[in-house]
C-alpha cells in the first residue's frame, strides 16, 4: 500500500508534455547551432520579394491591372503569396534535420530510451512551426518596410491570418517530417522537399490564375497554396475569399492527418 506522503506518479499526458518540451529545446538548440541553413532558406523569399517588386513590379502591376503601372498595388498583391512561400522554404530545413537524426542513429537511440515515443516527432513539428512563424514575421517586416500596408484588416482578421499561417505550417511540417524520415541522406531529404518550395511558384502568388494559359490554370488552381494565398490575401486586403477558406482548411487537415500517419508509421517501424 503506497504511503499518502509519496509523490504522485506523473500521468501519461504530463510525461508526453515533459518529453516533448525536452525534444523541442533540443531542436531549437540544433537550429541555433546551424543558422546557415535557416538563413539561406529565409533569404530566398526575401530576394524574390525584392526582385519582383523593384525589377518586375511596374510591368507586373500594369499587366495585372490592365492600366498604368502601380508598384504599391503589386506589393499588396505579392506579399501574402511570399509569406506562404516562406513556410514552404523552412520545410526543407525540417526534412533535412529529421533525415540527419534518422541516418546518424539518433532516432534509433531515442526508440530505446524510456521517453514518450511521440515526443521525438512532436519536438520536430513544434520547433519547425515556431521557425516558420518567426520567418513569416521577418519576411512580413521586410514587406512592410518596402511599402506593404493592410489598413482594412481588423484585429479579428489579423488573428485569423495568423491562425491560417500556423495551421498551414503545421500541416506541411508533418509532410516534411515524413519526407525526412524516408530519405536515405540529408541531400535526398532536401531534394524530396523541393516540391514544397516549387508549388508556390505555380500558384496565384505572383499573378492571378485567370492570367495564366488555359491549360495551366487547373495546375495552379487545384493545389493547396492557391486557396491559402487567396484566403490570406482576402483577410489582409479585404478582397473576396469565396470558398477558398474552407478549401484551405480541408487541405490543411487532410495533409496534417496524412503526414502524421506517415511519420508515425515510419517511426514505429523496427529498424533494419
Structure description:
The structure is a single chain. It is built from twelve helices and no strands. It is mainly alpha-helical and 272 residues long. Helix 4 (71-103) packs antiparallel against helix 8. It has helices at 12-33, 35-54, 57-65, 71-103, 106-112, 118-145, 155-182, 186-192, 194-198, 217-221, 225-237, 244-268. Helix content is 74%, strand content 0%.
Short description:
The chain has 272 residues and is an all-alpha fold. It has helices spanning 12-33, 35-54, 57-65, 71-103, 106-112, 118-145, 155-182, 186-192, 194-198, 217-221, 225-237, 244-268.
What is the end-to-end distance?
43 Å
| Overall body shape | elongated
Which band does the percent of strand residues land in? under 5%
Please provide the ordered H/E string of secondary-structure elements. HHHHHHHHHHHH
The assigned structural class equals mainly alpha
Radius of gyration: 21 Å
Q: Give unreliable regions as ranges.
A: none
Largest sheet: none
List keywords for this structure.
272 residues; elongated
Helices and strands, with pairings:
Blueprint: H1 12-33, H2 35-54, H3 57-65, H4 71-103, H5 106-112, H6 118-145, H7 155-182, H8 186-192, H9 194-198, H10 217-221, H11 225-237, H12 244-268
Helix pairs in contact: 1-6, 2-4, 2-6, 3-4, 4-6, 4-7, 4-8, 4-11, 6-7, 7-8, 7-11, 7-12, 11-12
Amino acid at each position: 500500500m503506497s504511503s499518502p506522503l509519496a509523490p504522485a506518479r506523473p500521468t501519461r499526458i504530463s510525461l508526453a508534455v515533459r518529453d516533448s518540451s525536452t525534444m523541442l529545446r533540443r531542436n531549437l538548440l540544433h537550429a541555433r547551432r546551424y543558422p546557415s541553413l535557416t538563413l539561406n532558406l529565409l533569404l530566398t523569399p526575401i530576394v524574390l520579394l525584392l526582385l519582383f517588386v523593384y525589377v518586375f513590379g511596374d510591368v507586373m502591376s500594369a499587366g495585372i491591372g490592365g492600366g498604368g503601372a502601380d508598384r504599391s498595388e503589386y506589393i499588396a498583391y505579392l506579399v501574402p503569396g511570399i509569406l506562404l512561400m516562406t513556410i514552404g522554404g523552412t520545410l526543407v530545413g525540417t526534412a533535412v534535420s529529421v533525415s540527419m537524426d534518422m541516418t546518424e542513429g539518433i532516432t534509433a537511440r531515442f526508440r530505446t530510451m524510456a521517453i514518450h515515443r511521440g515526443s521525438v516527432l512532436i519536438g520536430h513539428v513544434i520547433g519547425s512551426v515556431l521557425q516558420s512563424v518567426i520567418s513569416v514575421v521577418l519576411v512580413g517586416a521586410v514587406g512592410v518596410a518596402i511599402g506593404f500596408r493592410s489598413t482594412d484588416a481588423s484585429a479579428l482578421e489579423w488573428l485569423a491570418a495568423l491562425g491560417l499561417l500556423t495551421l498551414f505550417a503545421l500541416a506541411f511540417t508533418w509532410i516534411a517530417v515524413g519526407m525526412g524520415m524516408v530519405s536515405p541522406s540529408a541531400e535526398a531529404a532536401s531534394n524530396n522537399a523541393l516540391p514544397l518550395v516549387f508549388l508556390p511558384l505555380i500558384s496565384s502568388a505572383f499573378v492571378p490564375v485567370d492570367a495564366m494559359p488555359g491549360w495551366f490554370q487547373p495546375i495552379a488552381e487545384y493545389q493547396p497554396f492557391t486557396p491559402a494565398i487567396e484566403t490570406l490575401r482576402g483577410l489582409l486586403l479585404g478582397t473576396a475569399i469565396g470558398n477558398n477558406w474552407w478549401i484551405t482548411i480541408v487541405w490543411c487537415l487532410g495533409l496534417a492527418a496524412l503526414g502524421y500517419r506517415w511519420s508515425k508509421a515510419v517511426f514505429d517501424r523496427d529498424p533494419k
